[in-house]
Design brief:
With 368 residues, the protein is α/β, with parallel strands linked by helices. 38% of the residues lie in helices and 15% in strands. α8 packs across α9. The longest helix is centred in the last third of the chain and has 23 residues. It is globular, with a radius of gyration of 24 Å.
Length: 368
């Protein structure tokens, strides 16, 4: 009985309009989208809106020999049909798809898909955005001026920068620096910058994941977290002051921890999130622990955006070998964050204004 009631509640919730970009059309993006949406039960939770073209989708559907995926072609997101998979026509021409090849054509149409989807997201035509993988080299050849999705979406939202966070059911890892060269990390991190990321992470854990008092672990930069200055002073001079400043603002931040021992032990399970100093320091252990189920979440923005934790995988494009699990998890996380934000906003609404007591105008003796 309890299970039936739960299923009834889920199925009657308002479906969330999930905008989906195709990513690089020469990679596995379209394939994982087709596979992730292959189970019709997902339509009880969301209304998928894919930005691309019916011809491109049909090409990939044929390449992987899928006979069950059906969709509805629409010209604009205003025409969305619920209980169906919608494909917004972003281009009408036949595209020269070269599976497994990174080239400007793949980048050009990935950019077109992304631009149209973000426009509709900003206009409120879709509720959340899930992006399929792009080739940074290919999309930059097509005029994309950003290191990746995270920076592009921050710019679109009018934010100086966003927080890149990797999420799974096992752990959450956020980054102080993301798409920069390793040689530039030590000169890029500052106490102020790390403090800003701690505060942003703390805020996201509260409003996006519903955690009341988040515990955040902060990693060091150097081996053994500098070992008291023997292997670097960034921990004592930059990172630790940021942690102390966060503590002074009642944020539960701890560290800095040596990255190898921290992930090598079970320490990471004791915290709600981990803040790493650079890309591979955080993503290498994350993908080792949660590959194919992890999700890339862009925190610190007014919009909700997620993506799978893998790349374009050109080497297996069009072969039907791509695992759609991460993309499906990206869709579910986007919906979870959207609903959590709505819930947090609802419970934090200002209470009704309390009126001043009116003077007593009744008959009889005056009140004391």
């Amino acid at each position: 009985m309890e299970k039936q009631e739960k299923e009834k509640i889920i199925s009657t919730r308002e479906p969330i309009r999930v905008g989906i970009t195709l990513g690089d059309i020469n990679g596995i993006g379209p394939e994982v989208i087709i596979k992730a949406l292959g189970d019709p039960r997902i339509l009880t939770e969301c209304t998928p809106v894919i930005y691309g073209s019916s011809k491109t989708i049909s090409y990939h559907k044929k390449a992987i020999n899928d006979k069950n995926f059906n969709f509805t072609r629409i010209a604009d997101a205003n025409e969305i049909q619920h209980k169906k998979i919608n494909v917004v026509s972003c281009w009408s021409e036949v595209v020269n798809i070269t599976l497994g090849k990174s080239n400007e054509v793949g980048g050009q149409y990935a950019f077109k898909s992304l631009e149209r989807a973000t426009e509709d997201l900003a206009a409120g035509k879709v509720d959340v955005l899930v992006t399929a993988p792009i080739s940074k080299e290919a999309i930059q050849q097509a005029g994309f001026k950003f290191p990746g999705h995270t920076e592009y979406l921050a710019d679109m939202a009018g934010e100086k920068e966003a927080l890149m966070m990797m999420v799974s059911d096992k752990l959450r890892v956020a980054l102080v620096t993301s798409h920069i060269a390793l040689k530039d990390v030590s000169t890029t991190i500052t106490t102020e910058g790390i403090l800003a990321k701690i505060k942003e992470l703390n805020s996201s854990l509260k409003k996006d994941f519903g955690i009341v008092r988040p515990k955040i672990a902060v990693l060091g930069l150097n081996p053994h977290a500098g070992e008291k200055g023997k292997m670097g002073t960034e921990e004592s001079e930059i990172i630790n002051p940021a942690i102390q400043a966060a503590n002074n603002e009642k944020i539960l931040a701890f560290g800095p921890f040596p990255a190898d021992g921290f992930f090598g032990s079970s320490n990471y399970t004791q915290y709600d999130a981990i803040l790493a100093m650079y890309h591979d320091q955080g993503l290498t252990p994350f993908k080792a622990l949660a590959f194919n189920s992890g999700v890339n979440f862009t925190a610190g923005l007014p919009i909700v955006r997620t993506s799978p934790d893998h790349g374009t995988a050109f080497d297996i494009a069009g072969q039907g070998k791509a695992d759609e699990a991460s993309f499906r998890e990206a869709m579910y996380l986007a919906m979870d964050v959207y609903r959590t934000r709505a819930f947090i906003k609802e419970i934090n609404k200002d209470p009704l204004a309390i009126s001043e007591p009116k003077p007593y105008k009744g008959k009889g003796r005056d009140r004391d």
